[in-house]
Amino acid sequence: MLSRQEKKRRTRRTIIDAAFRLLDEKQNLSSISLREVARAAGIAPTSFYRHFNNIDELGLTLVDEAGLALRQLMRQARIEIASGTGIINTSVDTFMLFTCDQSNVFRLLLREHAGTSAAFRAAVSREIQHFIDELADFIRNGNNVPADYAFLQAEAMVKLVFSAGAESLEADQSQRVVLANRLKKQLLFIAKGADALKPR
Question: What is the pTM for the complete model shown?
């Protein structure tokens, strides 16, 4: 028999998953209502308040989860890279798979980064900054370059990757392959340029 705490945790998870399902190509955080989320989660609207104070608090939780999901996926990719797989190919393939399999999660980060809510914009900016910082640490440790150079390279790569991710949401499978191959070449240009310009 489940404890009360476990039931509460599972219901909270159900609410979060239901909200992610609602965030398709037509809806964003600002357009979904508490009643819609409750209906999708199979709970009464009043039960929502046992888990979140309001829809904005749920929205900030979704942003945190979306950013964490992407960072965890890329961390796993770096483990594969450490075993000898090419860094750019593995990273791009992993990211493109994420935008395909979890399109609503990525769509959330993309939309709210330029959305109308200042709180959501700030939360997404923090998540993107975490992503850049982790990549900068990886670059610095692997290439013995100063922190500021590693940061500039990471920032350029992340911005390019997010832009490609936005394109991939509207692409079919053959277009996604072309997009991924183009992205790999562009990231290679950045990496080669960064290596040529780093202090010797």
Answer: 0.82
- The enclosing domain of 118 has a CATH number of 1.10.357.10
Within its chain, how far is the Cα of 51 from the centroid?
23
CA angle 130, 160, 185 (to 5 degrees): 125
pLDDT tens, 49-78?
999 999 999 999 999 998 888 888 888 877
Domain count along the chain: 1
* Span 137-168, pLDDT tens digits: 888 887 778 889 899 999 999 999 999 999 99
Is the residue at 140 inside a domain?
yes
Is the four-CA dihedral 161, 188, 149, 76 of positive or negative sign? positive
Ordered DSSP codes for 128-151? HHHHHHHHHHHHHHHHT--HHHHH
Average pLDDT over residues 125-132: 90
Measured distance CA(87)–CA(92) in Å, rounded: 9
Alpha helix positions (H), 83-171: 87-101, 103-113, 118-143, 147-168
* Nearest one of 153, 157, 158 to 109, comparing CA atoms: 158
Residue 61 lies in a domain: yes
How many degrees, rounded to 5, is the angle at CA 114 between CA 78 and CA 76?
Answer: 10
